[in-house]
Amino acid sequence: MRVRLCLVILAALAAAFAGPRAAVSQTATVNPDVYVANRYTSPITRLFASPVTDDSWGQERLSGATIRPGTRGELRPERGRGCMWDIRVIYQNGREEEKRRVELCSIAEVVFNGENARMPQQQGQQNQTPPRTPQEPQTPQQPQTPPQQQAPQTPPQPPRSADTMIINQGPATVVGLFAQPVSGSDWGQDRLGSGTLRAAGRFHLRLPAEQGCSFNLRIHFAGGAVDNRSNVDLCGTPELLLSARAQPGQAISSGTGFYVSRSGHVLTTFHTVRNCSAVVVARQGGQRIAMVRVADDAENDLALYRIPDLVSPVAPFRMAQAPVRPGERLVVVGYPARRVLGQVAVVESSVTAATGARGEATRFQFQGGPVEEPWGAPIYDQNGLVVGIANDPQFMGRAGTAVSREAIQRFLKTHNIEAVEVPAGETRRVPSMQDYAFPVVLPLDCIN
After folding, report:
1. Is the peptide bond before 439 cis (omega within 30 degrees of 0)?
2. Contact at 8 Å (CB) between 179 and 216?
3. Given this model, what pLDDT does residue 299 score?
4. Could you please report the per-residue DSSP string of 326-352?
């Protein structure tokens, strides 16, 4: 009887101590939107990540893509694998860098700056010392006065260069970034090139050492705001924060959408519109067509809007029996990094993988071309049928990611919208570039 009572008490104590831990493990989930930021001088060519409980690094996660200096790539850790992860990157110059026990449930970004990067030691060369050679015994010598030690000479330091991370705290998109040496008079080229820097985005600004450290900066935001900063020490400023207080009603970013029903329903990506108080179709001459939010799906990065009282054209989808195939030719149509309203981009591309970078069935990868940030752009096959929507925020120069047609159609059916489907083999007139762009694809503005 006494033994049974002890067992009952021990079981109660174990349940009391295990209860809170079990609750924490159920409520703490890994953040699926963690990014790996590269602040080193060499591109990241390989990326590995695994929970601390695993014995191996698992599969490589970039799948042939790279994370260039000053940019970042998605990590996409698997759900249900715990919060504590180990992460390892390999740079193009051969160096490796690791971060151990990174808590991924409460952060959105892991930064690699090369501070602990090292060359991998070759097997068989670790902890080796040359063999000692036997020496003849020597006659003891009289002690000598030790020579005076000279102060160690400091090696010459390389000239410092302007090297800083530009962080846009929002809400407005940065559409122009100019840097002028304080001793100069020419603003030179836009440091963003043809791209933009959206809210919460980062841009690695690196300038030649011969230009010195002190610069005047001019930052242009969507909506017309300009931020002028004088005599900024870019050598001693590791991070430079930008923020524009857009006025209510101002456009703070732009994107792409397209009609998916004859009742005026417009599909775009969720991250294109998540910071918007309103989303409108932007037309020439400043005309804005208001839209009503219908639904969104943050996990699949989809958002649905509707233009009231409109009978619209519609983009036809390819039927489910014909999934995309590696090597299949595509056409991407959208308004990426839009500077001048109305300049739509129509770019040929191809499928590089039939799944996402982590094997997700709801994604596929396509070859990036001379188009940057085509958020919400429809992706057509060569027969003019939609097979996906571009959702990767940075795919210039590397493979991009798209939400698959299957995920789109499940989202639409959830909200009682039947997409127009056409069999892949049905004979159709080969669409021209103008057919792709007008009138189904729309330029969207995000309003503050």
Report:
1. yes
2. yes
3. 86
4. TT-EEEEEE-TT-SSTT--EEEEEEEE
CB 228 within 8 A of CB 217: yes
E strand spans, 234-286 = 239-244, 251-259, 265-268, 278-282
- Cβ 411 vs Cβ 261: under 8 Å: no
Q: Identify the segments of the chain with pLDDT beneath 50.
A: 1-27, 122-136, 338-341, 393-397
Q: What is the pLDDT of residues 78-135, one digit of tens each?
A: 777 788 889 999 998 889 999 988 888 878 789 998 888 888 764 344 444 344 444 4
Closest listed residue to residue 353, CA positions, set 317, 399, 315? 399
> Rounded CA gap, 120 and 132, in Å?
27
Q: Which two tokens stand for residue 25?
A: 């493990």
CB neighbourhood size of 24 (10 A): 10
Count CB neighbours of 168 within 10 A.
24
Determine the Cα–Cα distance for residues 406 and 408; give it in Å rounded to an integer. Answer: 5
Residue 14: what pLDDT?
43
List, for residues 265-305, the tens digit of each pLDDT value.
Answer: 999 998 888 878 899 998 777 788 999 999 999 888 999 99
Query: Alpha helix (H) ranges present in 362-414?
Result: 405-414
pLDDT (0 to 100) of residue 13: 41
Give Cα 85 to chain centroid, integer Å: 19
Q: What strands lie across the sheet with 226-233, from one edge to the other? A: 174-181, 214-221, 226-233
What would the two tokens of residue 279 be? 């989303």
Sign of the Cα torsion 89, 91, 94, 95 reads negative
Per-residue model confidence as pLDDT tens digits over 277-287: 899 998 777 78
Distance of CA 369 to CAs 43, 349, 355, 379, Å?
19, 7, 19, 13
SS3 of the chain: helix, strand, coil, percent, to 5:
10, 35, 55
**Separation in Å, CA 70 to CA 113, 130, 231, 272, 302:** 10, 43, 23, 22, 27
Q: Token pair for residue 345? A: 């981009």
Dist CA 399 CA 354 (whole Å): 12
Residue 154 to residue 256: CA distance in whole angstroms: 56
Nearest of 297, 300, 261, 265 to residue 388 by alpha carbon: 300
Q: How far apart are CA 162 and CA 209, in angstroms?
A: 7
Render 59-127 in DSSP notation, one character per residue.
S-SSTT--B-TT-EEE--PPTTS-SEEEEEEEETTS-EEEEEEEETTS-SEEEE-STT-BPPPPTT-TT
